[in-house]
Write a structure and sequence with these properties.
heterodimer; A: alpha/beta; Urease, subunit C, domain 1; TIM Barrel; 2 domains; 8-stranded mixed β-sheet; 13 helices; 20 strands; 29% helix; B: alpha/beta; 26% helix
């Protein structure tokens, strides 16, 4: 008796302390029929048939036209099926608890760190990461923060034993934080806290320019003596994305012009809160945008108080490729609200399926992984989920099943376990 | 220390009274007893009444006769001031003239300092009531000259340091005497501010509301000390009692701080004279209602440099409006019949004072009021109206001599007389030699043109209409010139003595180094040119833009008024037993819900078609930190004495932004820096209204408590304040409540005495903090407690039960789901976040199902924001209760409307839709919790405060006004005005943990 009690105790403890076990490949092939399929490319198929086999999507059609034979056919009429949502520019897995310094691995010291790689610090077992999945966020770009060049991001799927297991694409791009043209006084030294022109702005730009020019002047394989230069040079020569983090209008213009002038091909603008007057410039330079999410305050008192919600539709109408940036306060835990960011953009002018596209195919295109994910298309990975209703709306984003590369993942988490435990406590 | 001052006072008095008996060893003993008579002068009284050909007779620094045809003694020295004007000299009330600047002390160690450094004084180092500015006074001749130059004769000077800054000295700016004559008083006025002293790093108070509470408590303590019941000696309080009759001048600053100083003034009967900042016109009705006299700085902002359009975008409309409207501030104060004095104290460059004074007059201030504000009003404030600020028999002979009306741009001040001594500012006898002349040097005839000869002379020299370099200098009756020839290498010099416009022979050295004599021959200029010269460039008076309510972007031109409105065919979320009713009509009348029904036909009302739309009650945010100038008073572990009601900021743009998200009522909570925080304010978001109109009438008062990491100061470097553990937090509460219970008992006993005994018994000490805690014990005040983990939640319930009261609300309460059963039994509500977690260790077990579990266990659950951003979309947060835990739509909606109303004790008025309740309503474009829905109209008390369809016009108007103002600024820059570089005011977005500074 005592032994059983002990074992039960151990079981409960271990269950609470550890995270969800990553799923293995679903061996049986499945055909989901009857659902509204949100393809991810802006289109929708009512009464759809979506087949998955060996980790891939093998069929995308309507219920009546389904052809293949599957081990299982599951009727999910009245439900919705989506490609897994992709969160860009996250710091998932790099910090566990904000206020606990020991759990923080997001910002290395130094200004120019192109050699720093986020992937090796990515905590695949983070309790925060597992809480993404019940909302449909299944893939993320993990990005370091801080400095002018904060380092390299990598792309992961969110159901993995470890970072090697998680990775979809190593070192997909370099992140450049454009200097701030404005600064505030240090009030604790009695200086005025008002926003003023930053006298060091040009100096900081010169530092960045020097660093880029010096790095690019080297031959590609020259690793010796200067790891940072080598890393930046390699990324540029391999045409990796340079993610330009810039929000103020001046930053956006200066940053894009700078990168264009030194011959960078793949520029992605991240943030972009002040881009309203620069839509044409962004379009004509063919720059995709990872747009600051809409759950933020306007940047100025006089600004249109709905502008944060309207920017996506302005960009889409201009023909710019847009996805959503999740960076901001409490960004890791709030990354699970990515679908609702898309929904909010939709409330202010983005057509619903275009809003879905923003966080699926557009994100995949920008990250260069659209050959394997981002939409429900034959041949792509079976990374998808089933929702009771519209997944961009809180009321109906209720996910019953989710697959990552054909593995049916657990939708449980530390949080759902506590929910069940205490619901049970009170139901007795 | 006080003894030293005492001796100093005696010494000073001796100087004034006893010069006669001072021995002299530097010569024969003389006395300055000349009678001085100023004659034929035009006198402007302190109210600018003008009388011509007057005389003033002065003896020993005072006026002994004034008027027409007064007898002039034969032995008097005569100053004939024909065609000149005399004004009483100005009085500066608010300066630190001659006072040594206090030295900022650096705080030592990494923890804040909680104890005072001084003993035998008040418990707070920032109360420096015993300080007398004479301690650090030293007459400053340069500064005195600068002040006299802009018309001041007497200054009231104090050290700008501390909340109670001690007393001031009154100094006559008389260079010809010693301090014995100059110091008119060494203990003239008491000075106050909201800012801590730089000479102590004691951490309390750390906010404006803390400063306000401290001043109130100080005067309560002084009243109690008077009774002699004290055990301690308190030199600070004794000084306050000694100085109780002195004028009390409060350095407030911004208009909201003026209102705050006024509030303390009336509560404590202190009659503060309040120094503002120049933006009082924006809240003029409330400032008028205070009834306090004001001191207003004449520092009008320069236009912004708008040459860089990107930078210009960052300047806020409110900043530009202030630039545009500020010069009309004095005139608007005058129109409102507010009594005010003017001060030069805030001017960066004091030389601009007269220019700004004239500007104020151009923008509508009457000359009479302007003059009074510089003379008799400050004199009256100092209770010296018979001595200074006036020209009458017995007053000090303090006046300025000018060339004309002081309000005329061209007028010059010649002399500033202080205590009967003439201080020359510019030589009134200097002869105007402007004009054209010829002079021959060698064989050549040179043309000269002299300009501005009475101020800074300019000379243009031409030879055969080629301009040559030259330098000139004109003073003490001599004109000295240096002329260069065409080669620029050789120069000639000449000097001319000038007497009554006649040039007496010029003697000089010519280009070859030879001496020569010549005469400047005047050339008659034609009359046309003269006319041109006399045409003074008129200063451009800009169009002053209308005041908005508030004076920001999105401010109203007129504050919205209640309307009678019929909503037709809406889906109505009643939050009552009727549930959600489709296709129904609702009538709003006189600010209340008047009628609900189908197909209502009512005439003479505004009809709003609600087909396809949803009408709900307004959202109520139980936990907000917007619309406040400060949030935390963390200088002590208990701050029950402070209240957010003291620091409401009705101009915060977040009020309007909240309206756009359907929020109508918020509780502005104190932060979570200490276990016992401050009292909250519950306000209606009536954008544009006064603070008074926003505050909820008769709502049950609240106080914020807090538990956990913030009050333990776990996440920042402070290790010296008790408590540092949850164990300490419990004992702190028990200690405070125990003391509050005893405090209450003391007062109850006292109040129960019969009248006779009462009059013989000293009153117990009145303690604001204990009063508040006692209210809690009596059930007269509710607690909303910031909380996270189950242990501490349980603990506070037990402490409350021990003291026989109940906690009203646990706010945040992220582990409420672990003790929901206990909460239900205690009867406490939970106001939580929908899905926040992982930002600190104590929210590791926070789950988004918390709301649902507590709700299912029978606890009243609300979702709050604690964020200016999230509060605009609390409808979406409510929807998360449906997603996480499956709460029904109807119940989820109550999480942000009826339930917070219940927790705040205002559900009898708002929170649901029922006939008779207040019409705080929101019209949504669709289902109120759908992510695709938007707020179309937000109504408070029957008036529309937000209407989405009017937004484009509002935005257009902001753009238009910006354009207009930018153009005005460009114009003024082109007219030669100085400009100021771009800067944007810092605004803090407050959360629980925001510490003020």
């Amino acid at each position: 008796m005592k032994k059983i009690f002990f074992l039960t105790f151990i079981l409960i403890i271990s269950q609470l302390a550890s995270q969800q076990t990553p799923a293995s490949l679903t061996e049986e092939s499945i055909l989901f029929i009857g659902a509204t399929a949100h393809i991810g490319n802006g289109n929708i198929i009512e009464n759809s048939a979506i087949g998955i086999r060996n980790g891939k999507i093998t069929e995308v059609s309507t219920k009546n036209l389904a052809e293949g034979t599957y081990d299982q056919t599951v009727d999910i009429s009245d439900k919705h099926i989506y490609p897994g949502f992709i969160a860009v520019n996250t710091s998932l897995g790099l910090v566990e608890i904000d206020a606990v310094r020991a759990s923080n691995d997001v910002d290395e010291i130094g200004d120019m760190l192109p050699h720093i790689r986020s992937i090796i610090a990515y905590n695949a077992e983070s309790k925060i990461v597992e809480s993404m999945r019940p909302n449909g966020v299944l893939v993320a770009q993990v990005t370091p923060r801080g400095g002018f060049i904060s380092g390299k991001s990598s792309i992961v799927q969110l159901d993995a034993w470890n970072w090697e297991d998680a990775v979809i694409r190593y070192d997909d791009g370099i992140h450049l934080n454009w200097p701030n043209p404005y600064s505030r006084g240090r009030w604790w030294l009695g200086e005025s806290p008002d926003l003023k022109v930053n006298k060091k702005y040009q100096e900081n730009i010169s530092k960045i320019e020097d660093f880029f020019q010096n790095a690019m002047a080297r031959s590609v394989n020259n690793k010796s003596k200067n790891l940072p230069y080598y890393s930046l040079n390699e990324a540029i020569k391999k045409n990796k994305n340079i993610f330009l983090h810039a929000n103020d209008e001046k930053q956006i213009v200066d940053g894009i012009v700078f990168l264009k002038n030194i011959g960078i091909k793949n520029i992605v603008l991240v943030g972009g809160r002040g881009l309203k007057s620069q839509l044409k410039m962004i379009k004509s330079n063919n720059i995709p945008v990872v747009l600051s999410h809409p759950h933020r305050l306007p940047t100025a008192e006089d600004e249109d108080l709905k502008l944060p919600y309207k920017l996506a539709s302005l960009l889409i109408n201009e023909g710019v490729l847009v996805t959503i940036d999740v960076q901001g306060s409490m960004e890791r835990m709030n990354t699970r609200n990515l679908p609702f960011y898309a929904g909010s953009f939709s409330a202010y002018g983005v057509e619903k399926e275009k809003a879905v596209e923003m966080i699926t195919l557009n994100a995949a295109k920008i990250l260069g992984i659209d050959d394997m994910m981002g939409s429900l298309e034959e041949g792509k990975d079976a990374t998808l989920f089933i929702s009771q209703g519209d997944a961009l709306d809180m009321m109906t984003n209720k996910i019953s099943r989710a697959f990552v590369q054909g593995r049916e993942i657990s939708l449980e988490s530390h949080q759902t376990e506590l929910w069940r435990r205490y619901s049970e406590k009170y139901s007795k | 220390m006080r003894r030293n001052i005492f001796y100093l006072i005696i010494f000073v008095n001796q100087l004034i009274l006893g010069q006669e008996y001072f021995p002299t060893n530097s010569g024969v003993k003389t006395e300055e007893d000349t009678y001085k008579a100023i004659t034929n002068v035009t006198i402007h009284s302190n109210s600018n009444q003008i009388t011509e050909s007057n005389s003033i007779l002065i003896h020993k620094g005072k006026i002994i006769q004034i008027g027409k045809n007064i007898p002039i003694p034969k032995n008097a020295r005569i100053y004939n001031m024909e065609s000149l004007h005399i004004y009483p000299s100005f009085i500066e009330l608010h300066t630190d003239f001659g006072i040594k600047k206090p030295k900022r002390i650096q705080s030592s160690g990494r923890s804040a300092e909680y104890s005072p450094k001084r003993k035998g004084y008040y418990w707070n180092d920032h109360i420096l009531s015993d300080y007398n500015s004479i301690k650090d006074y030293n007459y400053n001749k340069d500064m005195a000259a600068k002040m006299r130059k802009i018309g001041f004769g007497v200054v009231n000077s104090h050290r700008k340091n501390g909340i109670h800054r001690g007393t001031s000295v009154l100094i006559a700016l008389n260079d010809f005497a010693n301090d014995g004559e100059r110091i008119l008083s060494d203990n003239k006025a008491e000075h106050f501010s909201f800012s801590k002293s730089v000479t102590s790093s004691q951490s309390y108070p750390g906010s404006i509301m803390g400063s306000m509470a401290l001043i109130r408590q100080l005067y309560h303590d002084a009243n109690w000390y008077k009774q002699g019941e004290n055990i301690n000696k308190d030199i600070s309080i004794e000084s306050i009692l000694d100085n109780i009759k002195l004028p009390k001048i409060f350095d407030a600053g911004d208009k909201l701080n003026v209102l705050r100083a006024g509030k303390i003034s009336s509560e404590m009967g202190l009659n503060f004279i309040i120094k503002g900042s120049g933006n009082e016109y924006q809240n003029i009705d409330e400032i008028k209602a205070l009834g306090n006299e004001l001191i207003i700085p004449l520092n009008f902002p320069d236009p912004y440099d708008v040459s860089d359009p990107l930078l210009t975008k960052k300047i806020e409309l409110s900043q530009m409006l202030y630039w545009n409207q500020a010069p009309s501030n004095p005139s608007l104060l005058e129109k409102s019949k507010i009594i005010f004095a003017l001060t030069a104290s805030d001017l960066k460059n004091q030389d601009n004072f007269l220019k700004n004074l004239r500007k104020a007059v151009k923008y509508g201030l009457s000359e009479k009021t302007a003059l009074e504000a510089l003379t008799i009003i400050p004199a009256k404030i100092l209770k010296m109206e018979n001595k200074i600020g006036v020209l009458k028999k017995g007053a000090y002979a303090n006046f300025i001599v000018t060339s004309g009306s002081i309000f005329d741009d061209k007028t010059k001040i010649f002399e500033n007389w202080v205590n009967g001594h003439a201080h020359v500012i510019s030589d009134r006898k200097k002869i105007d030699i402007d004009g054209k002349y010829q002079i021959s040097i060698g064989v050549e005839n040179y043309d000269l043109e002299i300009k501005n000869s009475t101020s800074s002379i300019q000379v243009n020299v031409k030879l055969d209409s080629i301009k040559l370099n030259s330098k000139a200098n004109y003073r003490d009756g001599w004109l000295h010139m240096t002329l260069f020839d065409k080669s620029q290498k050789n120069f000639a010099r000449l000097s001319s003595k000038i007497d009554s416009e006649k040039f007496i022979l010029s003697s000089g050295v010519d280009f070859d180094g030879e001496n020569f004599d010549s005469v400047l021959k005047p050339v008659k200029s034609d009359s046309k040119e003269n006319e041109k010269k006399n045409k003074v460039k008129k200063e451009n008076i800009r169009e002053v833009l209308k005041l908005r309510y508030p004076n920001n972007a999105y401010g109203f031109e007129k504050i919205p008024k209640p309307e009678n409105v019929l909503y037709k065919n809406v889906t109505l979320w009643t939050n009552e037993k009727e549930g959600i009713i489709e296709n129904t009509d609702l009538l709003v009348k006189n600010g209340k819900i008047n009628l609900i029904g189908k197909d209502l036909n009512i005439e003479n009302v505004k009809i709003i078609d609600g087909t396809g739309k949803h009408l709900t009650s307004g959202i109520i945010d139980e936990h907000s930190h917007i619309a406040a100038s400060s949030i935390n008073e963390g200088g002590q572990n208990s701050s029950a004495e402070v209240t957010i009601e003291d620091v409401i900021d009705p101009d915060d743009i977040n009020i309007y932004r909240n309206l756009s998200g359907g929020v109508t009522t918020i509780q502005i909570l104190h932060g979570s820096a200490n276990p016992i925080g401050g009292r909250s304010a519950i306000i209606k978001l009536k954008w544009g209204s006064s603070i008074e109109e926003m505050l909820y009438p008769n709502s049950k008062p609240f106080i914020k408590f807090a538990l956990g990491e913030n009050v333990k100061q776990s996440n920042w470097g402070s290790f010296s304040r008790f408590p540092q553990t949850r164990m300490g937090v419990e004992q702190l509460y028990i200690d405070y409540f125990q003391r509050a219970r005893e405090y209450g008992q003391r007062w109850t006993n006292y109040n129960n005495l019969d009248r006779k005994t009462k009059s013989r018994t000293p009153k117990p000490r009145y303690d604001i903090e204990m009063e508040i805690l006692w209210e809690i014990l009596q059930g007269k005040r509710y607690i909303s407690c910031h909380s996270y983990v189950q242990s501490e939640i349980n603990m506070l319930m037990k402490v409350a039960e021990k003291f026989d009261f109940r906690i009203r609300t646990f706010t945040h309460i992220l582990e409420g789901y672990k003790v929901a059963d206990k909460m239900k039994i205690h009867g406490v509500g939970g106001s939580t976040f929908s899905d926040w977690w992982a930002y600190k260790f104590e929210v590791n077990d926070a789950i988004p199902y918390n709301g649902a579990i507590m709700h299912n266990a029978g606890v009243t659950v609300a979702y709050n924001s604690d964020s200016a951003e999230m509060s605009r979309r609390l409808n979406q947060e409510a929807a998360k209760a449906i997603k996480y835990g499956g709460v029904s739509e109807e119940e989820a909606w109550k999480f942000v409307t009826l339930n917070p109303a219940k927790l705040l004790g205002i559900d009898d008025k708002v929170g649901s839709i029922k006939v008779g309740k207040i019409a705080d309503l929101v019209l949504w474009s669709g289902h109120p919790m759908s992510i695709y829905s938007q707020v179309e109209k937000t109504m408070i008390e029957g008036a529309f405060y937000y209407e989405a369809d009017l937004l484009p016009a509002k935005i257009k108007q902001i753009e238009d006004e910006r354009k207009k103002l930018i153009l005005q600024m460009l114009n003024e820059k082109n007219m030669g005005s100085n400009t100021t570089n771009f800067k944007q005011r810092r605004k803090t977005e407050f959360h629980c943990e925001t510490i003020d500074y």
